[in-house]
Amino acid sequence: MSPDESRTESHQDLLYDWNLVDPEPAPTHPVELDDETLRDGLQCPSVRQPRLDEKIEILHAMAALGIGAADLGYASASRHVLEDVVALLKEIEGAGLAIAPNCAGRTIAHDILPIAEAQQRSGVAVEAALFLGSSPIRQTVEHWDIDFLIKTAVDAVSLARREDLEVMFVTEDTTRADPQDLRRIYLAAIEAGASRICVADTVGHATPSGVNALIRFARRLIAESGEDVKLDFHGHRDRGLDIINSLVAISAGAHRVHGCGLGIGERVGNAAIEMLLVNLKLLGWIDSDLSSLPAYSEAVSRATDTPIAPNLAAVGEDAFRTSTGVHAAAVLKAINSGDQWLANRVYSGVPADEVGREQVIAVGPMSGQANAVAWLSRRGLSCDEQYVEAIMTQAKAVDHVLTDDEIYALLGTGSG
Q1: Does 259 share its domain with 110?
Q2: Closest alpha carbon to 290 in 33, 96, 102, 95
Q3: CA atoms 235, 309, 307, 361: torsion sign
Q4: What is the residue range of 110's domain?
Q5: Spatial separation of the C-alpha atoms in residues 163 and 66, rounded to whole Å
Q6: What confidence tens digit (pLDDT) does each residue in 119-149 have?
């Protein structure tokens, strides 16, 4: 047995995983992701609309993470958006990106025909994600009845199919809709030719138990239809349940879940695709290389003028940075032992190296000497007692974590 194999085996004794005592059922099919950053994400009132070159950069970052599908935009919003969609489709084809494109639209010809135009001009197959409000609340506001909804669904799906578009039929506000209405609408859309149906938690209303019940309901409908139809879940985070709801949806039988970079989107946003990826990887439900996750998040941040919060899980500046003495001491001991597995888990639930990051030990008011030693060692500087003491004296006198420049100035050395 090699040293690495021996170490890996010994690690199994260091972590009793309560998550495995009564786990959610693992999916019986490959997990798919649909990145909505370039459509639903751009409906966030606070974002800047990206330039085409920025959209292309994000598209390549999606592909690097193994994200298999992406909504390229609302093609009917303007001629400018349509031209961007066509350009993105050509980029997918020309660069050989393993991304299945889709475009959102309402269940009206005005929205469907531009998607068909984009497909025709690019020569790349596009899935039309056609959405229609389904809940009694929406029906009341719009003065719709169930017969109108069924006819609208059938007419829209039929038009899209005549235009040679594959269709994902989306019921908006599914998580507050009447099951009998959903049954009639979905079955009508499937009969008209929809190859996917999507359960949408449009206002972030659902709890995990609600998602579980709804996905199982939708699976029974698909079975009743007798057609080979896939099932999607689209979640928002108004109640902060976006990630757990998406995981429950997959466990209950959804083939694909949707998300946006940095969780941007309408109101407080959509499911954050970074955290979907991280959790799916840690659960063993996907085997994607997530080392480029920081690059993806930074591309979305730059393109939309969305700051990455320091405490954002996995990709925030503080995700793997500690300035607390007891934490730093333990991390430093693990680092000094040469055991990377241990260093990335002693005070982390997400291993830094799985997501292209590393452990960082900073120095601040809550620090101990281990922090100063770690800071100096990392930069190849002497851990002389006077240096450690000078850093700690300064750290205890300020109200913030010391910046590198502050410590270099204190030591009278340059960062170069």
Answers
A1: yes
A2: 33
A3: negative
A4: 20-304
A5: 29
A6: 999 999 999 999 999 999 999 999 999 999 9
